[in-house]
Automatic annotation (TrEMBL):
Pfam families: HTH_5. The keyword DNA-binding applies. Residues 1-84 form the HTH arsR-type domain. SUPFAM superfamilies: Winged helix' DNA-binding domain (SSF46785). Keywords: DNA-binding, Transcription, Transcription regulation. PROSITE patterns: HTH_ARSR_2. It comes from Gelidibacter pelagius. Transmembrane segments: none annotated. CDD domains: HTH_ARSR. The keyword Protein transport does not apply. SMART domains: HTH_ARSR (SM00418). This is Winged helix-turn-helix transcriptional regulator.
Amino acid sequence: MNSLFKALNDETRRKIIELLKERDMNAGEISDQFNISKPSISHHLDILKRADLITSEKKGQFVEYSLNTTILEDLLNWILTLKN
């Protein structure tokens, strides 16, 4: 769970999650939305993947990234248990 909170603790990564909420995207499409280097975007994507917040699938010459809503549902359920 620590990797999940670490991943969510960065504004750029939260913005990437917001983008992927709308549709699946490749790294180039994601990078076009930011004013930072492509290697920095790749680093953020790697952190999100290690936290299981996103998944990736090779499609032709591109890797397409998708939001993994299951991990977010698990997080929300855990947070709700703290309420009692």
